[in-house]
Amino acid sequence: MTATRPVALVTGASSGIGRSTALALAEAGFDVVGTSRDTAKARPAAGVTFLDLDVAGDESVAAVVGEVIERFGRIDVLVNNAGIGSAGAAEESSVAQARSVFDINVFGLMRMTNAVLPHMRARGSGRIVNMSSIVGFVPQPYMAVYAATKHAVEGYSESLDHEVREYGVRVLLVEPAWTNTAFEANSVQPDRPLDAYAGRRQVFEEYMAQAVRDGDDPAVVAEAVLAAATDAKPKLRYAAGRTGRVHTMRRLIPARMFDQQLRKLNKLPA
Questions:
Q1: What percent of the chain has pLDDT over 70?
Q2: Ordered DSSP codes for the chain
Q3: Annotated catalytic residue: which of 60, 142, 146, 197?
Q4: What is the pLDDT of residues 123-138, one digit of tens each?
Q5: Which pLDDT value is given to residue 242?
Q6: What angle do CA 176, 97, 114 make, to 5 degrees?
Q7: Domains of the chain (ranges, CATH numbers)
């Protein structure tokens, strides 16, 4: 069966930004498939079909993309939202732990992209919207591994967009600032914590908890995703919420001053 309405596939759609995005796309007229590692725990959402998916598994990814194409006949938009947070000083995370975060945030996104691209190229159209972050273009002490994944997403997405544009496919980035979700509570903690960083890590954790409480509503990010999915002339990057101001600061403020402000914000010595 081929759906008459456009079809969107949203990963990590059971809560937070993913759920808000799935609902926004459904309200905009899309048939939406939302995924989660355990959809039994996902609350029903009007207009959204849920499927179990582990973006870290090749077979799971292939099976879900195949099922969506078989059921709906098309995938017009892929939103790569599934991800996991990571906190702690860089030295406190083993390479094995960092690899597990990359396997979801970066390689999971690549698996999904590789799975849908042949279909989109064959149809001559499609949008892949990748969830980046404010720390995809600025540093964040005590989130080095997470920031590294989002910097990777930025470079991958912009490069890929140039490769597939001639086939009618666009690869676009949405860059949220801190958002009021369970992100901070669900972040991976360092697997080899060191006393040398304990004090600074605690200061960061307090800062991050407050930033998330004061963060943008997930609906703000969903609005940016919807724009990326539907704009007639899409932009490569969509700043969501307060990210736009940081983009401007990074572009206009001298590097030394930006560095000083970042350290002050994170209560690090000058």
A1: 99
A2: ---SS-EEEESS-SSHHHHHHHHHHHHTT-EEEEEES-GGGSPP-TTEEEEE--TT-HHHHHHHHHHHHHHHS---EEEE-----B-B-GGGS-HHHHHHHHHHHTHHHHHHHHHHHHHHHHHT-EEEEEE--GGGTS--TTBHHHHHHHHHHHHHHHHHHHHHGGGTEEEEEEEE-SBSSSTTTTSBPPSS--HHHHHHHHHHHHHHHHHHHTSBPHHHHHHHHHHHHH-SS--SEEEETTHHHHHHHHHHS-HHHHHHHHHHHTT---
A3: 146
A4: 999 999 999 999 999 9
A5: 81
A6: 60
A7: 7-265 (3.40.50.720)
Residue 3 has pLDDT above 70, yes or no: no
pLDDT at 209 over 70: yes
Point out the catalytic residue in the list 14, 93, 100, 133: 14
pLDDT mean over 90-115: 98
Q: Are strands 31-36 and 48-52 parallel, antiparallel or unpaired?
A: parallel
Annotated catalytic residue, options 60, 133, 142, 150: 150
Give me the catalytic one of 36, 132, 133, 157: 132
- Tell me if residue 86 is catalytic: no
pLDDT band at 181 (very low <50, low <70, confident <90, very high): confident
Q: Is 267 a catalytic residue?
A: no
Residue 2 has pLDDT above 90, yes or no: no
Arithmetic mean of pLDDT, 30-54: 91
